[in-house]
Write a sequence for this structure.
């Protein structure tokens, strides 16, 4: 679906960025702009900046930035067209549909519909003869029929093409199921069901859409759990199982489990804030998603080695996202599901409330690696513990947990505090040296902060940025820029942005940053927000434009001459090699 540019301009004009961002972030006005704590990363000192006259946001901590469309894309993890639709609904506007060929929106909606129909078929099969084994398994795990319905659990028959045939009768062909990740094809080109002889767990996003599936096998084949591949509607690193239900919880804390069954069992027992990551370790994206709905997290992973390692990886991610983290120490069972069955709901609730601070948990894990009756190993324990304590941001935390570590190793708190102070000083000196190196290399400060983006010619790129800022602030200045084209720019990204904005300016359309939302990826938009947020004087703008263009063209000429010199040198080298060969040949 192609959306008319005039519609996008009107939508952006009707959406005040301060009002939009204020729905997610508490903003404080300072001068002509607003500041708040960034919703995309954890921080205590506000570095998230909203500039209403430019209709942009920019975080000087994590680097995120853009306009209203990008903000919705980032905060709600939506593709461009869905973000436009959400903003249009907010502004009481109807998105016009033009063109007859199916576009990204139509494809996305089709995949969601296919997933919904597949979920219905799997649920129906669970109660039919072909699903008897799956139903017996789920009921045998203690799940009630009400829970099976609430979570939409189902069964995929032990057939190569049961789902293909069932959805084929509804008008969907095999290629549709391939796109949805519900079918696979082999090297011979044969297409068959991805999920066969498995209990099925629909994966539902926070908007209530079925975006994928997980399936547990009923025999000894592998893998034991099979998940949908990434599709245009599903990304396992950005979605969390059961968050659509957990987000409504009044518990105030999210309970992280390792799998579907633990999560479902907890919900059935009344712990309605349980979630699980989807066939992957917890990611930074998962943590950021959870932080939008919860302030506290309890990690309730299995008590085995894999569960301990997973908890250790998850703790810093959750902390960085701004969550207060505790860890539930499983005793008397291998996982939450088994614990509740063995000891009951109240015992698990007590265990939950006794969850220990993640710092003590990590100290205990470090301690378990060493024999503290051996002096050599005791020193190694203290060395690792000091590194952990020194990483804590609060002096109070460092004193309290430093005392805990000292007590474990049977040394004085004063000695521990002294060693922690030495480590802090060492880290401070290292950071200072890095800062000095950066300051001694000013050109590095002018490079894009985003990975994968780099300026090959700093002088030209600074002039290119200046022209783009002027064009964003006043599209009427395009008349002063003459025949300049983006292909003359040293930076392909800046050249592409200039051509796009110049065309819009000549067509009388808006040149606000939001106009670029559908043209740039997230890293490119973050960088352009940084470019736009730099100060730019509108005084003597005509002279500034002439100066910028002169720099761009002089640098272009220099690059072209350098390129010709390279060609000449290469030709001379080839000539010399050929001459030497001929002289050596009898």
């Amino acid at each position: 679906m192609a959306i008319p540019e005039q519609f996008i301009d009107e939508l952006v004009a009707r959406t005040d960025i301060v009002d939009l961002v204020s729905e997610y972030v508490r903003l404080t006005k300072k001068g002509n702009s607003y500041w708040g704590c960034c919703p995309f990363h954890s921080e205590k000192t506000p570095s998230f900046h909203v500039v209403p006259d430019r209709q942009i946001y920019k975080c000087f901590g994590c680097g995120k930035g853009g306009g209203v469309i990008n903000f919705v894309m980032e905060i709600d993890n939506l593709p461009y067209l869905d973000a436009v639709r959400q903003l249009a609904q907010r502004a009481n506007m109807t998105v016009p549909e033009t063109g007859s060929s199916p576009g990204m929106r139509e494809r996305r909606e089709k995949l969601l519909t296919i997933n919904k129909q597949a979920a219905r078929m799997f649920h129906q099969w669970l109660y039919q003869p072909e699903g008897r084994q799956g139903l017996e398994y789920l009921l045998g795990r203690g799940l009630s029929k009400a829970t099976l319905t609430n979570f939409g659990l189902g069964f995929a028959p032990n057939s190569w093409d049961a789902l293909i045939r069932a959805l084929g009768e509804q008008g969907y062909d095999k290629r549709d199921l391939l796109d949805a990740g519900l079918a696979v094809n082999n090297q011979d080109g044969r297409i068959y069901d991805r999920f066969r002889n498995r209990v099925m767990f629909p994966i539902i996003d926070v908007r209530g859409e079925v975006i994928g599936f997980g399936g547990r096998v009923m025999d000894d084949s592998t893998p034991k759990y099979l998940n949908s591949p990434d599709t245009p509607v599903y990304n396992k690193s950005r979605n969390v199982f059961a968050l659509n239900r957990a987000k409504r919880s009044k518990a105030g804390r999210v309970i992280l489990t390792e799998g579907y069954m633990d999560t479902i069992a907890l919900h059935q027992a009344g712990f309605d804030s349980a979630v699980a990551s989807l066939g992957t370790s917890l990611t930074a994206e998962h943590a950021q998603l959870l932080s939008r709905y919860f302030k506290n997290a309890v990690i309730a992973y299995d008590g085995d080695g894999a569960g301990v390692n997973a908890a250790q990886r998850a703790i810093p991610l959750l902390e960085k996202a701004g969550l207060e983290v505790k860890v539930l120490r499983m005793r008397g069972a291998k996982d939450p599901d088994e614990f509740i069955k063995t000891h009951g709901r109240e015992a698990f609730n007590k265990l939950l409330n006794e969850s220990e601070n993640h710092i003590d948990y990590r100290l205990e894990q470090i301690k378990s690696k060493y024999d503290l009756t051996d002096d050599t190993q005791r020193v190694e324990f203290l060395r690792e513990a000091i590194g952990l304590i020194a990483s804590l941001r609060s002096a109070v935390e460092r004193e309290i947990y430093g005392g805990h570590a000292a007590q474990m190793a049977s040394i004085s708190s004063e000695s521990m505090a002294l060693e922690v102070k030495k480590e802090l000083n060492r880290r401070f000196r290292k950071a200072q040296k890095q800062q000095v190196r950066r300051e001694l290399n000013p050109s590095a400060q002018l490079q894009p902060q985003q990975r994968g983006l780099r300026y090959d010619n700093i002088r030209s790129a600074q002039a290119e940025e200046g022209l783009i800022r002027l064009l964003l602030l006043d599209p009427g200045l395009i008349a002063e820029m003459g025949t300049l084209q983006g292909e003359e720019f040293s930076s392909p990204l800046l050249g592409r942005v200039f051509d796009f904005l110049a065309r819009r300016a000549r067509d009388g359309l808006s040149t606000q940053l939001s106009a670029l939302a559908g043209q740039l990826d997230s890293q490119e938009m973050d960088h352009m927000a940084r470019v736009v947020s730099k100060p730019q004087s509108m005084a003597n703008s005509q002279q500034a434009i002439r100066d910028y263009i002169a720099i761009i063209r002089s640098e272009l000429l220099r690059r072209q001459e350098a390129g010709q010199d390279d060609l000449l040198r290469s030709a001379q080298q080839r000539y010399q090699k050929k001459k030497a060969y001929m002289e050596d040949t009898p």
